[in-house]
Amino acid sequence: QGGVRFNNYVGVSAAAGLFGASGITLAAVANAAIVPTVNILCVLVFARFGPGGRLPVKLIARQLATNPLILACLAGIILQGTGIGIPRGPEAVLKSLGQASLPLGLLCVGAALDLKTARSWLKPIGMSSITKFVIMPAVTLIACRLIGLQGDAAIAVLLFQSLPTASSSYIMARQMGGDAPLMAGIIAGQTLLAALALPVAVITLSSWV
Question: Where are the domains of the chain?
C-alpha cells in the first residue's frame, strides 16, 4: 500500500492549484481510473499474502463489493454518466465532510503510531518511499512517453503517481489483518517526505513530458 496507494485529497488540491478548474477535471479522471484499480490490487494482495493465508473466493468478492472507495467511485461515475449529479443540499454537506476527512484521517494515523518500535520501521518506510517517490514517477514518465501523453494531462498523471500514500491504508491494514502500526508509520513518514519529494518529482519530470 505504501508503494501504490495515494492521498487523493492532496492530489486534487495540488491539481487545482496548478491548473485551476481543468486541474479538478484531470484529478477526477485520475481518481476514477486509479482508485478502483489500486483498491482491487490491495485487497487481492491481502487475500493472498495476509496472516490468515489465502482467503476464500466468496470472502474476496465480498471485500471488493463492500469496499467504500470502489463503491464511491462507481456511484460518482453513475451520477455523472446519467446526468443526475448530486443535489445542491447534500453536495454542500459532502464537500464539508470531504474537507475534514484528510485531517481526521491523519489524526487517527498519528494516534496509532507506536514510537517504541519506530526504529524497526526505517527500512520499510525507506523502501516504500523510494517506490512511491522515485520508481512510480519514473515508470509513469516512461508510460507517458510511450503512449504520447503530453501537457497538463501528463503532469497531472505524474502528480498523482508521486503522492504520499493514503491515510485509508491504515484502515484497510486493520480490516485485512495487516501490520496496521507499520502502515501508520509509513503514512506519517511519507506525508512528511512528500513536502520535499512531491514538488521535486513533479518539477523534475514535467520538463520531460
Answer: 8-206
Using left for φ > 0, alpha for ψ between -120 and 50, and beta otherwise, residue 151 falls in left
Most distant pair of Cα atoms in the chain: their distance: 52
Cα–Cα distance for residue pair 100/111, rounded to 1 Å: 17
**Rounded CA separation 14/104 (Å):** 19
Question: What one-letter code names the amino acid at 156?
Answer: A
Separation of alpha carbons 54 and 51, rounded Å: 9
Distance, in Å, from the CA atom of 108 to the CA atom of 93, rounded to the nearest integer, reads: 22
pLDDT for 104-126, tens place per residue? 777 777 776 777 777 788 899 99
Q: What is the pLDDT of residues 147-172, one digit of tens each?
A: 999 999 999 999 999 999 998 899 88
Question: How many whole angstroms separate alpha carbon 107 and alpha carbon 1?
Answer: 19
